[in-house]
Amino acid sequence: MEQSLVFIKPDGGERGLIGDVLARFEKRGIKVKQLELKQLTEDQVTAHYQEHIDKPFFPNLKSYILSGPICLMVLEAPSVISIIRKMVGATNSAEADPGTIRGDYALTTQNNIIHASDSPESAAREISNFF
Question: CA-CA distance, 107 to 109, in Å (whole number)?
């Protein structure tokens, strides 16, 4: 079984989309192994987005992720990372296909509702950062 870290970002929580997003994963047959609504610390955000620290958009991204609680999930299924990435859709919401989470709910690239691990290595690092 493969695991992935997924979190619903502050805009998803503010808009009341946690249940809808979680239901999509459960209907697909993906198992929820851990689930927590949490306000992140600056250290957790910096550790999570370590590859973006020196990029010009990082201060705004950090501020946004710290702006409210996020719904953290560890999800599990065979090939779960690739399945979730297809369900989530393109990072740029303007390019996300209808029927994907971002295609149906996201408004901007920054406020794009959800994060999902992109590899088994990222998933392991991200899960250990939050759980």
Answer: 7
Active site residue 48: no
- Span between the terminal Cα atoms of the chain, in Å: 18
Whether the Cβ atoms of residue 16 and residue 93 lie closer than 8 Å to each other: no
Q: Measured between alpha carbons, how far is 71 from 5 in angstroms, rounded to an integer?
A: 11
Q: How far apart are CA 70 and CA 10, in angstroms?
A: 5
Per-residue pLDDT of the chain (131 residues; tens, 9 = 90+): 999 999 999 999 999 999 999 999 999 999 999 999 999 999 999 999 988 999 998 999 899 999 999 999 999 999 999 999 999 999 888 899 999 999 999 987 778 899 999 999 999 999 999 99
The catalytic residue among 9, 48, 102, 115 is 115
Cα separation, 83 vs 28, whole angstroms: 9
Q: What's the Cα-to-Cα distance from 67 to each of 22, 44, 102, rounded to whole Å?
A: 21, 14, 20
